[in-house]
Model the fold of this input.
Amino acid sequence: MDDEDDADFLPPANTNTFAIPNEPDLLMEYDLYRPSMGTRRLHSERNREVYAEAFIENERLGTLADLCVRALAKMGTRYISPLVKHDPLKLRVHYDALDVNLPLKDCYFVDDVRFWRRVVLAKSSDKTLSLKKLDEYDWKGKGVSLKYVELVEACPAAYWPEKQMAELGSLVRQYVRTMHIQHLQSLTDESFTHYVESEEELDVTSEESVVSEISSDEKDTMDEEEECEEEEEEVTIVQPLKKKHGESGVRINEPKARMFEVEVHSISIASSGDLADHQESKKSIATDQEAQQKRRQARNARNAARQQLRELHAEKKEEHERRRRNRALLRIQPEPEPKRKKKKKAKKMPIEGVFDLAVEPEPEDNEDKVADGRNKEKLLRRIKRYDYPAKHCHHIDLSFVRYFDQLVSLTIEFLGPQMELNYHKRHMNFSYDDMLHLASGLHTLRQLKVFRLRNSRMDNIKLLILARVLKQLDALEIVDFGFDQLNDNCDVALEMLLERTKMYKALELEYNKLERTAVEAIGNALRCHSFNDPDGSPLEYLGLAHNPISDSGLTMLVRDLVGTNHVEELNINGIECPPYRVSANIGFLLRYHNPLRRLDMAAVMLNPSVGHELLRGLETNHKIIHFDCRACDLSLDQEFEADVIVRRNNYELQHTYLGDETQTEESLLQHLAGLRHPILTKIQNDLERRDECIRNRPSESSTDLSVNEEQDEEQEEEFDIWKMLGVKKSVIKPEIERQSSISSHQSNSGFVYNPNAFTLQEFREHLYLPGPGNRYYYFHKPDEM
Done:
């Protein structure tokens, strides 16, 4: 055959069009039955891909029909052949042949649970899912979520296909209940070039330019009008000093002035002789002033946060105007070049030899490098000074979560793309616009119960943006901001986060940098919620583990929690406090906080001397059922004593009659008489279920009547040709059937197995049924003997 024919029929050398098996057994058979080159060059074999010669008869390989089903499954899943759809075995082969990397738009309608289980196990990092059965997990919902998140994480940060992702989200939203986003793509290094080039040089300014005015858009309450009138006079006196010296604290001398007024008022009252009324009025005035001071500070902090958001919006608007001006400059058409005057052509000299020929220069190949005229040292200083701030590190539009209105759990981690050795901190940052987009998407998720934003670089402004939205979600139960590098200046955002009618069930703030101010804001918010709604839902779990909480912060938190219905489980593992303050505060909490049930305080600095005070407080508490004090430098005896106390509380919880003064001796004896051994209780429950099943089973008469009716109908439908021809047919009733029918109606007679009643055909059918492998020899052994 010619070479041209080889080029027409044979595939290119660098392509693999032959379905060569990967299994060792199949590969051996393929080598044995491999078609020759002459066979491959035949015109009828030019488009052949699957060679049936390689698949010899083998129980593990399947039939040729199964191979056809697998080949059809690789072509698509939208249309399944009726022959495959109506055969369960073929349908099982079809779903097992589907690839787990199919596009989501081509497989979201598949309802086979085994296929989605393979997808989840192949794409999920949670290896414990392999232990779950088919009916113990939402495999399809998890698989669809993983495939959609895979598309989201593959999108570049500079481009978000809004239309395509919205259409796909509308198709799969009914299946998605959970979503976990980890590795979002970040902007490339070229995207920050204009920030570096447009950066202005450092300028030394005066203190007056540094001070920023903070405006307030919140009106004062009616009960503080008189106080505000008095404060206006003080502000008018102190304001010139502020403009002169640039001081930020305008109302620094207010507490001293108020204390002076209180002292003057107390002297006037003491002169009247009513000392008792003077003490009560002094306490009430002090408490009112302290509450007003706290409200004023909280209001100023909220106004400062709002001013920061205004500045952020103004900066964003200025950046938008800058880009608009640049686009306008680019759209301006350049001025046309002036027309050059045509030069008069010189008279051509007569060509006398080769050297008189006019040779044109070669065209430019753009290989000449243009010298960079910029100041390289200055440019290098700018590049080094640029710190890739968070406001410039944008990601895709996270408001796409609004497509999934049935979302129950949302977890986001800004871990950047898969960097490996190419680490850069810009991959880990995210901007305020990302939080604004995420907040706009969260606003529509009314069924969201769990929200986690972990392993991210948060700050007070980002937390404030999310807090204003999360507090409006009534169904939200768990909020997690663990490992987010939150500082102590997040007090306003945390207090705003807890300002809601229906409190969360869990607030997880582990592994942050929260100190006294933030912890005090949390305690104050919980106390206000309990005061406004005493019968409301409480906060069950509060996680503050591995935060640098000071001794004053822990003291304020304990004082605010005592007397409220919040915090059934407290986690303060690894906090940084002096040992004596920890033992005193935790002992006070164990004695007087009734809702507390679980306390984790592992890896806290203690010692055996302060451990006795802690154990005395634990001994008085009969409700705590979990107490973790590992790695606290306590002695072994003290840890054993704490364990004994917890076991006592668990035993009292299981036996409620202990400690109940309303129980009498007769009621206790009656309760003890009703106790049973667990094994005996399980046997009794099984017997009761068996009796219930026997009572509810269908009656025997109804089945007999239905069988007789079906037999009568079949007899009426039969056409007896012998009867039409006049031939009488003798009816012989088998004795065995009569005896079996009689014995079936006798309830007292037992079942009798007659092995000799089987025919040879029935015996052969019995041999092909699944069972032990030596069944044939077992039946034939008596004949040989």
